[in-house]
Amino acid sequence: MLETKVKAFLTHQAFSLASKKMVIGVSGGPDSLALLHFLLAEKEKQNMRLVVAHVDHMFRGQESYEDAMFVKDFCEQNSISFEMTRINVPEIIRSTGKSSQIAARDVRYEFFSKIMEKYQYPWLALAHHGDDQMETMLMRLTRGSTGMARAGIPFSRPFASGTIFRPFLGLERDDIQEYCQKHSLSPRMDPSNEKGIYSRNRFRKEVVPFLKKENPHVHEQFQRFSEEITSDETFLQELTGQRMNKVVTEKEEDKITIDIISFLEMPLPLQRRGIHLILNYLYKEKPASLSAVHIDQIFSIVHHSQPSGQLNFPNGLHVFRSYHSLSFQFQPNEGESYQFKMTGPGMIVLPNGGEIRAEYIEREIPTTDSNTALFKVSSLKWPIIIRSRKIGDRMSIKGMQGSKKLKSIFIDQKVPVQERNMWPVLTDKEGSIIWLPGLKKSSFEGIDFAAEKYILFTYQK
Predict the structure, then answer these.
(1) What integer is the mean pLDDT of 70-89?
(2) 149 vs 230: CA distance, rounded Å
(3) CATH architecture of 336-460
């Protein structure tokens, strides 16, 4: 039965539910509803505190809203705290070009993070199960994933200010369906799960059933394989880090240089992981266009008989070979600097395609976020300058004493190196930085109830 399998799996993972404060991601489907029901049954015995988080992605209009109301009603009937949000993911897809699955996942996890912070609950429980694990590992192997990615879905991993854990990874989909029937649960069904246009659904309907015919317990073999890969990869990555410390001859924020001779003395499995470590460090977030082909190109230039060569990678990363040195570096483009002037309300289109808008506010004061900033009109020293960053730029940050280098802010906020030269900086007439859109606000920003007139700046990427 499901309860026995889950408890055995948690014991295998050396994980205890006792006294956990957790957010549970619940869509209303069979998997998440079964997880919520299981944790509710354990709540009193394990002294747990629970809150449910639901995201309406607005893909299916009234139908998806009814999913949210279903989860809300279930929580009210069981005296469980419920939090939800409605986010127009189709609009996000249109404006960003993200795939539907990635866009939905991004907003969902962002909301989960907010709820964990709101309640100060450090655990996030998600309902991924053994069939999900099989589908994920097969998909990643098919498209050529390497390293830790081949291990699929981890049982637990750090997330936001806490940890995600997945107690159902030891189950298969049939276990969950039987549990829902046994306990008279009536989960909501998402018709998109039946569409063959998604590659995951094709694996689910065609590949996984074939494997289960070969071995009814194949999901357990995949989970075991996942844990072995994770263990092996963790060891190899630690070993790679130790060896790379002796190979790297220069390391800066936007540049790493290695000694080719020392690098080639490393075993080939560590060489490949060493290249990935370098790219992870420089890119922060790897672009989707970076592929295994680029890794192969690095090995080609390392083994080439010519003493020099150059590769151009996505987002402006350049790889240079000079004799026995190989350098990875983002090279700033001197032509990227810009400066605009605003003397009042209006709009500026930035070279990176973004926009800065300014408008007067005289009545209702709006709620601001990181992409908006509110100033008393009388306190600003006009004109307002919108420009690219300069060497030595510093700003006073709202709520903090003293000032901080923009370079440090970019590092703290994990802004990719290749984006920093184009990031807009707003200053007043005297050059004081009043706002770093999307990142930090200065001490000049905010509400003064004695003010009669404000100006609202909005940044749109």
Answers:
(1) 96
(2) 9
(3) 3-Layer(bba) Sandwich (3.50)
Q: Which tokens hold the place of 452?
A: 């009669």
CB atoms within 10 A of CB 384: 23
Cβ atoms 201, 41 nearer than 8 A: no
Distances in Å between the alpha carbon of 32 and those of 36, 189, 263? 6, 12, 47
Using the structure block, give the residue that is written with the tokens 């790897």. 286
Mean pLDDT on 413-422: 78
Rounded CA-CA distance 217/129 in Å is 13
Q: Domain extents for the chain?
A: 2-214, 228-330, 336-460
**Within 13 Å, how many C-alpha atoms sit on residue 342's CB side?**
25
The pLDDT score that the predictor gives to residue 197 is 45
DSSP-derived letter for residue 324 is: T
User: In 273-424, which ranges are E strands?
Assistant: 308-312, 317-322, 325-330, 339-342, 346-349, 355-361, 372-376, 384-387, 394-395, 404-405
- State the distance between the two ends of the chain, measured CA to CA, in whole angstroms: 50
pTM of the model: 0.68
Per-residue pLDDT for 285 more than 80? no
228-330 CATH: 3.30.465.60
CB contact at 8 A, 398 and 409: no
d(CA 137, CA 275): 23
CATH architecture of structural domain 2-214:
3-Layer(aba) Sandwich (3.40)
The encoded tokens of residue 242 equal 């130790």
Please check whether residue 153 is in contact with residue 166, taking contact to mean a CB–CB distance below 8 angstroms. yes
How many Cβ atoms sit within 10 Å of the Cβ of residue 382?
13
